[in-house]
Write a sequence for this structure.
């Protein structure tokens, strides 16, 4: 099994789902048992006599990629514990085909326990996951160990106001080998003790997960990235107000450095979003939160269309060929960004924030449509009559107009684009106020 699949399987096995009911259905696609979770998702196991080894889930991940999702892995693990005697060792799972074959082989046994399965899945998993040799084998495997430690660090890092999950070490020295079985008790360190317990004891882990959900972890992670963006703005403001700090190089506090940091934060936020969605669903509220942070950063940059050095009260060494953009954050990121070479990462070259918003479903940013329209109007005000509009303006305007046409005029075939979302052009630019 590939590392991504192994990670997905471990996340599914460790998940805390509940089956509300199990029903058999007949359809034009064949007969199947539907396992309805205590959420919108439902896993369907089709009659292998009619459809072969066919299992599907109604979740967004499965529907978009047709790959085994965490709900199917979770049910696969539970059914093996409930219906097989003895339960099949998890370490025998080697491929996607193996999972489908084992689930389909259980089809004939599901009907005999149809009414008991919802309760049995929860009760049996609670017992087997903490006490069986199979659980120990899985938790001792390198892949599972890495995934589980990552999950526990993610949960415990929400209580740290600064550290990101990837940098969070609750005990100073990470457990590098689960087979070494270090003492679970860490003197004078409750966090480290809980960390080791949650890795070793499935019941402790699942109890933590019930309280510290995926959504909570994601929301805190995004909020910490938002703080990093605010710190970049504040560091630039402090530099402009007071001059270079003794502790920090002057070049580490200027417009290019602030702009590069903001690009990095935007990229990190979007990578975190994609990574977490690949491991499991996020609520609509959390996904909208990502768009809100990105738009907030974009708005702040648009509010900074000014020559920051125009009225400074300290001496600054200036190169003769200093570009105008190096004196204006809006120009550096939106109006006239640098032309980077081929060796520069793609996220440094993309249209700041706007490209990332375009890649997101409209449901995640449509509640911000008024703020986005205001930003487009603001960009429009900055444009001199004779200049071409910035790429960010053109893309954002088009994105808003396409959404508006689709949302409010879906049946119109003769919709014409209005000339602009903003006020008539003003032949001025606030760059050097």
């Amino acid at each position: 099994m590939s590392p991504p699949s192994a990670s997905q399987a471990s996340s599914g096995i460790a998940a805390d789902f509940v089956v509300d009911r199990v029903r058999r259905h007949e359809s034009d696609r064949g007969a199947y048992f539907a396992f309805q979770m205590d959420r919108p998702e439902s896993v369907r196991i089709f009659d292998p006599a009619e459809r072969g080894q066919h299992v599907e889930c109604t979740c967004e991940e499965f529907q978009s990629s047709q790959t085994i999702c965490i709900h199917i892995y979770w049910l696969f693990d539970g059914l093996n514990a409930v219906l097989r005697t003895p339960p099949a060792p998890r370490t025998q799972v080697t491929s996607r085909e193996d999972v489908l074959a084992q689930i389909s082989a259980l089809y004939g046994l599901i009907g005999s326990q149809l009414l008991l399965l919802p309760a049995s899945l929860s009760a049996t998993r609670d017992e087997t996951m903490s006490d069986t040799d199979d659980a120990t084998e899985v938790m001792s495997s390198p892949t599972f160990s890495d995934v589980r430690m990552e999950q526990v660090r993610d949960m415990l890092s929400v209580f740290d106001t600064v550290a990101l999950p990837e940098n969070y070490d609750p005990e100073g020295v990470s457990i590098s080998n689960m087979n070494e079985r270090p003492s679970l008790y860490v003197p004078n360190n409750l966090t480290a003790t809980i960390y080791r317990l949650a890795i070793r004891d499935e019941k402790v882990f699942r109890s933590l997960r019930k309280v510290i959900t995926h959504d909570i972890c994601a929301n805190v992670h995004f909020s910490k990235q938002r703080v990093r963006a605010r710190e970049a703005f504040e560091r630039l403001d402090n530099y402009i107000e007071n001059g270079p700090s003794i502790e920090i190089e002057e070049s580490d506090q200027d417009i290019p450095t602030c702009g590069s940091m903001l690009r990095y934060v935007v990229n990190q936020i979007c990578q975190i979003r994609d990574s977490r969605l690949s491991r499991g669903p996020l609520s609509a509220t959390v996904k909208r939160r990502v768009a809100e942070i990105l738009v907030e950063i974009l708005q702040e940059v648009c509010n900074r269309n000014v020559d920051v050095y125009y009225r400074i009260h300290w001496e600054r060494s200036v190169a003769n060929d200093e570009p105008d953009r190096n004196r204006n954050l809006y120009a550096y990121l939106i109006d006239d960004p640098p032309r980077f070479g081929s060796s520069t990462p793609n996220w440094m070259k993309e249209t700041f924030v706007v490209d990332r918003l375009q890649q997101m479903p409209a449901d995640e940013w449509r509640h911000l449509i008024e703020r986005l329209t205001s930003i487009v109007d603001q960009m429009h005000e900055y444009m001199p009559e004779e200049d071409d509009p910035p790429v960010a303006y053109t893309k954002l305007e088009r994105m808003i107009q396409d959404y508006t046409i689709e949302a409010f005029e879906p049946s119109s075939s003769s919709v014409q684009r209005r000339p602009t979302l903003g006020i008539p052009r003003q032949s001025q630019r606030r760059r050097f106020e």
Strands lie at 19-25, 32-37, 42-46, 55-57.
